[in-house]
Model the fold of this input.
Amino acid sequence: MIDIFTLQFVFGLLATTFIVTGMFLKTRKNILLLKLSADISWVLAFVVQGAMAGTIAMIFTTMRTFFGRNFAQLRSIGMFLWLCSVVLTLIFWKGFYDVFSLIGLTFVTIAVYVNNPKIVKLFIMMAAISWCFYGYFIGYFEIILFEFCIIIAGMINIYRKS
Done:
């Protein structure tokens, strides 16, 4: 059951709103600015939830988005932060479903370091699909709801452009 009367839900909803809005923007920098805002909101959601591994992973993601947005030519920083996230995921590995988290992390890393805004959106959508599976397997249905909204926004954007 989804409890909408929690602070973590509010932060997740805020993060989703940022990403959904970003799906309709035209420039890479603006898309990633909203993604950065969403990442900060997710950090706060994990802090409120008391999920230490999620908080640390989202801090790495936030840093990756910051560096990818502002210093896209420094891909080595993104790779290092991605590797830190992979190591963290392996340390806190709970089951086969954690592979969906790794796939999502990988797609987001690619998204923040590509230059084409359409490709950025595509990789954010692919990450959202991966995190929907992850949310299903861990029983965190809020994630499925939030990521589904991102997928739909991306599909609407793609349909409008064609």
The radius of gyration is 15 Å. The mean pLDDT is 92. The first helix runs from residue 7 to 22.
